[in-house]
Write a structure and sequence with these properties.
Number of strands: 17
Largest sheet: 9 strands, mixed
CATH topology of the largest domain: Dihydrodipicolinate Reductase, domain 2
Enzyme class: oxidoreductase
Shape: globular
Organism: Sulfuriroseicoccus oceanibius
Keywords: Carbohydrate metabolism, Glucose metabolism, NADP, Oxidoreductase
Strand order of the largest sheet: 16-15-14-13-7-12-11-8-17
Pathway: Carbohydrate degradation; pentose phosphate pathway; D-ribulose 5-phosphate from D-glucose 6-phosphate (oxidative stage): step 1/3
Number of domains: 2
Helix content: 25-40%
CATH class of the largest domain: Alpha Beta
Pfam family, one: G6PD_C
Structural class: alpha/beta
């Protein structure tokens, strides 16, 4: 026992409990490439509670053995820690398959019976975690049928929880509807809206970086920070038939509404009153509520750039333009790139712009946050060329997780010449091992009842409220802002550069 009650609380809240994980959409890519490999790696790390079971739920007809074999083959290809037949075989008997359509209530009743049988054979009732990994159009059916079959109810001291994958709605109205369906089935405390970006180690470390280091928090305000950039770039386009989904969503709804606004909230939030789930989420919601509205198409045109890539080259390979991609409408007005200039209207951030950009077919795959501090006074060492002389703190989310701090140093020699240098921290080298995959952490947290890294209802709705203003200007106003174009393999349209150039700034080169 420790004499520090704060430390006791931190340890206790992260203990995962044995449960049966029921995955709806068990034959899909998410289950095979992310969820089951995550559970396997949790087991490899010795953190999976003994007796935890997986029950896959999908419409295709297959046996338990066939399902296990398919999962094993994919796990061998994608598992973070490689694949051990011995470890897999020791766990495979806890993997089961249940065939049913998502709309057939009888399938859920038979699922309830089968879960009871599996749990009785193992010694009695067990906690249950339902994971909605299906297409979003089936979320309502799954939730309502879980309720009709009585699977949403806790039994004695055994809980029932639900994890809902993104997209959580496609606008404010549909998000509110889905929230109502979820909350009519599960209590908010048992509802886990997942955003895998928040499971990434560096995203989790943003609060530690800010609030545990006295050298940063006193400077984390408009007195010392000039601006903030958040970039999420992808070199891929619409491979694998993704164009059919993406052309109905776009970069703003697919990435900004959830992933990037979540990162922005962590960077900009006030210190939470405590590290409880609601303490952290209260602080994040306040950031979303403080985002300066864009009520008119003119506001959107002045602060948001949307774009599509034209034919170009990525890593020496020729690639088509967005409108020539498979399953994309040749007349599409869906953005494959978006850049935003955002303002947070509160005491800490008044006057500090936040620049956010995300796009397909950019030169490399990378996600990072860069904090650009104000320049030192233009006296002494900064009288001449001050280009590139500002201090920049970079938080790398992926792929090379870590932090770096750029500062100015004197070049050795008799003359006073200066150059920017970088202090660099990398998770893999500093801690001697790769960071766990995001889904590993998030699954363990859901099994432990820790919702800190999951979105709460008001988070989702406030994010959509802000995004809907931009979508309305693009698709429903009489004078919509234009669609910019950029060559695939470049860093985006010139219009996005102009967002920063107005204040004498430039995008950071990744």
């Amino acid at each position: 026992m420790t004499d520090n009650p704060f430390r006791e609380e931190q340890v206790a809240r992260n203990i995962a409990e044995q449960c049966t994980i029921v995955i709806f959409g068990a034959t899909g890519d998410l289950t095979h490439r992310k969820l089951v490999p995550a559970i396997y790696n949790i087991a490899a790390d010795g953190e999976l509670p003994h007796g935890t079971r997986i029950v896959g739920f999908a419409r295709r007809d297959k046996s338990d053995e066939q399902f296990r074999q398919e999962l094993a083959e994919m796990n061998a290809k994608v598992s973070r820690q490689g694949h051990s037949d011995t470890l897999w075989d020791s766990y495979a008997e806890n993997i089961h398959y249940h065939q049913s359509t998502f709309t057939d209530l009888d399938g859920y009743k038979s699922l309830a019976k089968r879960l009871d049988e599996l749990e009785d054979a193992a010694g009695g009732p067990c906690n249950r975690l339902f994971y909605l990994a299906s297409a979003p159009e089936f979320f309502d059916d799954i939730l309502e049928n879980l309720k009709e079959a009585g699977l949403n109810q806790a039994r004695g001291d055994k809980w029932s929880r639900v994890i809902v994958e993104k997209p959580f709605g496609k606008d404010l109205a549909t998000a509110k509807h889905l929230n109502e369906v979820v909350n009519a089935t599960f209590e908010e405390k048992d509802t886990y809206r997942i955003d895998h970006y928040l499971g990434k180690e560096t995203a989790q470390n943003i609060m530690v970086l800010r609030f545990a280091n006295a050298i940063f928090e006193p400077l984390w305000n408009n007195q010392f920070i000039d601006h903030v950039q958040i970039t999420c770039s992808e070199d891929l386009g619409m491979e694998g038939g993704r164009g059919g989904y993406y052309d109905t969503a776009g970069a703003l709804r697919d990435m900004v509404q959830n992933h990037l606004l979540q990162l922005l909230s962590l960077v900009a939030m006030e210190p939470p009153v405590d590290l409880s789930a609601d303490g952290v989420r209260d602080a994040k919601v306040n950031v979303l509520r403080s985002l300066r509205p864009m009520p008119t198409a003119e506001d959107v045109a002045a602060n948001v750039v949307r774009g599509q890539y034209t034919a170009g080259s990525i890593n020496g390979n020729s690639v088509p333009g967005y409108r020539e991609e498979d399953r994309v409408n040749p007349q599409s007005m869906t953005e494959a790139y978006v850049a935003l200039r955002l303002h947070i209207d509160n005491w800490r951030w008044e006057g500090v712009p936040f620049f956010v950009r995300v796009g397909k077919r950019l030169p490399k795959k990378s996600t990072e946050i860069s904090i650009h501090f104000k320049k030192a006074p233009n006296v002494l060492f900064n009288r001449d060329n001050t280009s590139g002389r500002e201090n920049v703190l970079v938080i790398r989310i992926q792929p090379d997780e870590g932090h770096s701090l750029r500062m100015v140093s004197k070049i050795p020699g008799a003359t006073t010449r200066m150059e920017s240098v970088k202090m660099d921290f990398r998770y893999a080298t500093s801690f001697g091992k790769a960071s766990p995959e995001a889904y590993e952490r998030l699954l363990l947290d859901a099994m432990a009842g820790d919702a800190t890294l999951f979105a709460r209802r008001d988070e989702v709705e406030n994010a959509w409220k802000f995004i809907d203003q931009i979508e309305h200007a693009w698709h429903q106003s009489d004078n919509p802002p234009p669609m910019a174009e950029f060559e695939a393999g470049s860093w985006g349209p010139a219009e996005a550069d102009a967002l920063l150039a107005e204040g004498g700034r430039t995008w950071r080169r990744l």
